[in-house]
Amino acid sequence: MWIWILVGALFLAALYWFVDREIYFYEATHLGPRVQGWLYDRWAKNYDRDKAESQARDADMLARPALEALRGLPAPRVLDLATGTGRLPLALLTESAFTGHVTAVDVSQGMLDQAAQKLKVFEGRLTLQQVIGFPLPFPDDSFDMVACMEALEVMPEMDTPLCELSRVLRPGGFLLTSRGAEASGRKSKVMSREQFKSLLESKGFEQVEIVTWWKWFDRVTARNPIDKPSPGHQLAPAQ
Asked: Residue 25 falls within a domain, yes or no?
């Protein structure tokens, strides 16, 4: 009898470890986009509350560099990959200096529903779209700016999303993203600043700048080169 009790205890311990590591810590990274989308659907209503610390400086740390990069463009086109509840669209669209349109995509329809409620006043200047997997459903050179905040670390790998962001970003366009910091504890997903800069450069980005943002993430900006190679050269395979 005690053997079965031991087996049961070991099973429960293994299940707890799996749930804690794969679902809560890695946010279902290894379980596929549909499972990940389902998980984020469950989180959507409490997401902004749980992310309040990282969102506190969005106007200064996200909107300001974006506005500087887009200065002079009368109607800039922005893509926000893994938008969640629309933190970047909110930061941009509430700025009177921003006169463009934001396309915000996410794997979770629940997150997009929360974004729609929060941003309904900006209807007409915002497109919300569920996208599951790659390639992204946009033509080459579609956007003046692309963003992906606090999300590369919870994707199966970073090469494909970065290649796709470069593909849909016009020559000279602006990238805004983040690097998971060492304090996050996600050792298998954390790159040093030097490694992350090299990764971006390997995907064609230049003028990479990494600055401290908050305890778990650094803010990262970069540019597509003006002489970006011919469209389609980085089109990622479908997954």
From this structure: no
Q: What is the pLDDT of residue 16?
A: 38
C-alpha pair distances (Å), 43 with each of 17, 19, 50, 218? 20, 15, 9, 23
Range of the domain at 69: 50-223
**Using omega within 30 degrees of 0 as the cis cutoff, is the peptide bond preceding 137 cis?**
no
**What per-residue confidence (pLDDT) applies to 238?**
35
pLDDT at 19: 47
14 found inside a domain: no
Bridge partners for 177 per DSSP:
148, 220
Residue 211 is assigned to a structural domain of this protein: yes
The CATH number of residue 179's host domain is 3.40.50.150
Structural domains counted in the chain: 1
Query: With a cut of 70, which residues of the chain have pLDDT below it?
Result: 1-2, 4-35, 37, 184-188, 230-239
Is residue 24 one of the residues assigned to a domain? no
Q: Give, in order, the Cα–Cα distances in Å from 57 to each of 73, 87, 115, 199.
A: 25, 11, 19, 26
Do 203 and 162 form a contact (C-beta atoms < 8 A)? Answer: yes
Given a contact cutoff of 8 angstroms between Cβ atoms, the answer to whether 141 and 164 are in contact is no
Token pair for residue 21?
A: 């590591």
Q: Which residues pair with 80 in a beta bridge?
A: 104, 147
> Reduced to 3 states, what is the DSSP secondary structure of residue 95?
coil
